[in-house]
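User:
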Amino acid sequence: MAQTAVDTVSPQTGGKTGAEKGSAGKGSAGSPGKVALNLPTTIGSGTAGDPYLIGAGNGGYRALHYDLDLDYRVATNQLRATATITLVATMRLDRFSLDFDGLSVDRVTVNGARPRKSVHTGRKLVVTPLTTMEAGERFEIAVRYRGAPHPLRSIWGEVGWEELLDGVLVAGQPCGAASWFPCNDHPSNKATYRIAVSCEAPYTVVSNGTLTAKSTRSGHTRWTFEVVEPMATYLASVMIGRYRSSAQQPVTAGGPAPVPITLHFPTNLAHNVGVDFARLGEMVSVFSTTFGPYPFPGYSVVVTDDVLEIPLEAHGLAVFGRNHVDGNHGSDRLIAHELAHQWFGNSLTAAAWRDIWLQEGFACYAEWIWGEHAGGRTAEQSAVYHRGRLEAQPQDLLVGDPGPHNMFDDRVYKRGALALHAVRRSLGDEVFFDTLRAWTRANRHGLVSTDAFVEFVSIHTGSGEIRRIIDRWIYRTARPKL
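Assistant: Predicted structure:
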């Protein structure tokens, strides 16, 4: 990956790196006797400083809103688009960067004017505006771009915009958003969105949020979606395919209005989809009772005609492959898992990837809760079963900081779920589930961390055992007993 000039700024301090600082009281070879001054930098950091996503994210500002206008041709995989992003400076700012890769930039403006300089190299678009942005100042950048979008290579495989046999899928976790729009690609910067997509009329477009407009002209249909809740970039998604859409009965899920559920699928999979997702409304009701009101205006499921390695969650929706529907409820566990991410991951988002267990461990525990409700193993039996299976696996993983190569390791999922079950055993069912509902309510559409979870549960319940339990299961490699 090519490095840009802004990568020399330390994300931890916001100042220059040690290599760029002079030594106080000593002259340099070129200027004998002069003292180097460590003046405050006005250059936004070129990364978020997250060791799990080296080079990703940016500093000096926060993105508040993304307005994405996409004109896409499925037949040729050609995209022409404009991203208009509202930002707020978090420091005095002369230069900043956005994550963006694989597409060509045609034009950049800042507050309607051409910037002093913009350079697109590697995975960064680096912009020097005409005037300095003061801390707290809002400003707007518009980027017009084009090209053939494609997934980005990462240590987790290819992520981002991906062509299907006849359509498109976006799998952005954890760093694929930059494959289709310029952004601050780190989960700690959540923002609202408007996503408009135009493509050939025979195709259905599914995206995040609420469909607010749809119009067809000259053989092309334009779909417009609004996301009013703050959303992490990796959860932004566009799905395009020849889908049939079916609305289920809206579900009363503890919120101000019933939750509409819509399924999108190829006609040839209609029977299997109808059977396998028949209990989705009931699932929403169970989780709403258990975790608190469903956090978004609706829930959509897309089933592609392609085989997918794993299902994917996104803000307000989930995506499955044809291999995940068998007409015999063979994927109920996966359906429950992706639905649970609407609470844990999409509404409550880990601010740093080291805390991914707060998303995957909770979603895994939701599988056990649904299994018990559906007449399978109780959550206690699932805990005993999976604790036994962990015996055969290496005891070398720190769930609370597994490292980028192991952040999606199954042990993170299962040990995270076991940690929750241990907390449940300690508190008792009534206090435990009351605490989960209070946790999702207090952090709705926000950012969370392990420390914040421990502090919240400890204060809410008055228990002195929570930190010890989390320490044993999350911050030690040896597997505790149940």
